[in-house]
């Protein structure tokens, strides 16, 4: 007759099995898929190259198809249909409705949506779903839900919408989120520009709250770009500069930049402990080598795939004689945040800053101060000023 196990053995075995099962689950956790927005109005060769070069790491492309301004006037996008048709997975056709539009004509929106669907399909684009982007006021959510219901009834494809954290305070959000098949929570550039483009703590709190409100799959939209925002004395945004410089300097403006390291950490946090129902990430927007305010493609790829980021900034004095140019160089493999302060120590009679830096002096001596946030792409350099020094090797140090 076999000897019975001690009373404590069975619970111990059960605990060991549970621990092994949990460890296996952690090892086998499915990575959150990366989607991306293609929001550019101009389909340049640079954009087409970036699309093809990133198709292996992007699960689904969300492509702007048409947009309606605050007056109800429509503008259709003109994408490279051959490039879209060549993608390995179906794309999402996005309709953007200006959030300032007080009145939405459901029939006009429905007609435009189906016209775009017909044109894209005729061009060979495999459209897998439709997305509505309408950043309306919270008071409009009830009417928005009614509009979505009418659109949903005419579609043979899944419907998704974007959502704002400010909607979390509304009881109408539950009614709204019950209509589409999925939703995308935007956690960047949604509050006062003075608060920055992205705050990881605030974004995490919004994501947790949102997970408790929706019963359907949802994604979170994350930034991979920078933008310049100008506002008036009352704090109202009057202009936004995105892919290319277009605004003259104003007394009230700020350069807002999504820092790759911060977003990489946030992505890892979501991957390790995803909120309930989180189905993936959607990055705004696909960078190109001509997009001056987006991450470099190398940095974007590293963040999306969880690879280490290794920026490496250095300061170089170029030229001969007592007056030399001050160069900021990134010798690393990823975008580097521009330093906020560059201290100048030594026998220097004069200096000045350029390209976003200004010369200042305090009790510790001369220093260059960054006028706005920014990134320096890998293997590039920027001339940020000049020095006239008697020292052959003045000491230069920088701080974030």
UniProtKB/TrEMBL annotation:
<dbReference type="InterPro" id="IPR021488">
    <property type="entry name" value="DUF3142"/>
</dbReference>
<protein>
    <submittedName>
        <fullName>DUF3142 domain-containing protein</fullName>
    </submittedName>
</protein>
<dbReference type="Pfam" id="PF11340">
    <property type="entry name" value="DUF3142"/>
</dbReference>
<keyword id="KW-0732">Signal</keyword>
<feature type="signal peptide">
    <location>
        <begin position="1"/>
        <end position="23"/>
    </location>
</feature>
């Amino acid at each position: 007759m076999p000897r019975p196990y001690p009373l404590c053995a069975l619970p111990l075995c059960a605990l060991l099995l549970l621990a092994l099962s949990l460890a296996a689950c952690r090892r086998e956790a499915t990575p959150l898929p990366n989607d991306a927005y293609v929001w550019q109005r101009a389909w340049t060769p640079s954009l087409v190259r970036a699309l093809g070069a990133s198709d292996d790491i992007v699960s689904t492309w969300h492509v702007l198809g048409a947009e309606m301004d605050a007056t109800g006037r429509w503008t259709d996008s003109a994408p490279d249909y051959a490039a879209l048709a060549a993608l390995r997975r179906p794309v999402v056709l996005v309709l953007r409705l200006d959030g300032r539009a007080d009145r939405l004509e459901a029939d006009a929106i429905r007609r435009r949506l189906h016209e775009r669907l017909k044109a894209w399909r005729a061009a060979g684009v495999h459209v897998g779903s439709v997305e509505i982007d309408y950043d309306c006021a919270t008071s409009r959510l009830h009417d928005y839900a009614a509009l979505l219901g009418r659109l949903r009834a005419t579609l043979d494809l899944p419907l998704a919408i974007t959502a704002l954290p400010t909607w979390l305070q509304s009881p109408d959000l539950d009614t709204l989120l019950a209509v589409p098949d999925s939703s995308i929570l935007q956690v960047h550039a949604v509050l006062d520009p003075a608060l920055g483009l992205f705050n990881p703590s605030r974004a995490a709190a919004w994501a947790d709250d949102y997970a408790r409100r929706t019963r359907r799959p949802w994604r979170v939209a994350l930034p991979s770009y920078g933008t310049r925002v100008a506002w008036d004395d009352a704090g109202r945004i009057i202009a936004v500069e995105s892919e290319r410089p277009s605004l003259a300097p104003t007394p009230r403006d700020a350069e807002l930049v999504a820092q790759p390291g911060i977003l990489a950490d946030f992505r890892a946090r979501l991957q390790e402990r995803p909120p309930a129902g989180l189905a993936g990430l959607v990055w705004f927007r696909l960078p190109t080598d001509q997009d001056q305010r987006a991450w470099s493609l190398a940095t974007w790829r590293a963040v999306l795939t969880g690879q280490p980021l290794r920026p490496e900034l250095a300061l170089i004095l170029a030229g001969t004689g007592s007056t030399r140019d001050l160069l900021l160089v990134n010798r690393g493999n990823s975008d580097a945040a521009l330093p906020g302060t560059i201290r100048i120590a030594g026998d220097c009679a004069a200096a000045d800053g350029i390209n976003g830096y200004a010369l200042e002096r305090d009790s510790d001596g001369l220093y260059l101060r960054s006028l706005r946030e920014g990134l320096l792409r890998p293997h590039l350099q920027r001339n940020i000023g000049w020095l006239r020094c008697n020292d052959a090797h003045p000491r230069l140090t920088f701080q974030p």
